[in-house]
Design goal:
Strand content: under 5%
Structural class: mainly alpha
Helix content: over 70%
Number of helices: 4
Radius of gyration: 29 Å
Number of strands: 0
Shape: rod-shaped
């Protein structure tokens, strides 16, 4: 559960970073002076810490995504109750068709 939440949160954070990155890069065409000011704010120690957080978010998101792919494609996953009940019904139906099920005894009057 928490892995799912963290995967979604890191995905949103990475998307937000990419959105801001596209906006500040587009600022070059509008106002090069404002772009230089924005880039100067990126050189502060606080933003450097945020960049480490971004790298951690990207690594977690990528590795967790690979884990999800591995679980989806190479693991049978947790058994679903509906699938288990359906499987039991199929096995009983096959056994009944083969005649492997014991027949009920007739009732005495």
């Amino acid at each position: 559960m928490w892995s799912w939440v963290a995967h979604r949160v890191t995905g949103v954070l990475i998307f937000f970073f990419l959105f801001v990155h596209v906006l500040d890069t587009a600022l070059v065409r509008v106002s090069p002076e404002d772009y230089d000011k924005v880039v100067a704010t990126y050189k502060t120690p606080i933003v450097a810490c945020l960049e480490y957080g971004l790298v951690a978010a990207i690594l977690f998101h990528a590795l967790n995504g690979l884990r999800v792919i591995a679980v989806d494609f190479w693991s049978k996953g947790p058994p679903l109750p509906e699938a288990d009940a359906l499987d039991r019904r199929r096995r009983v139906a096959r056994a009944d068709a083969r005649g492997d099920l014991p027949r009920p005894r007739p009732r005495r009057p």
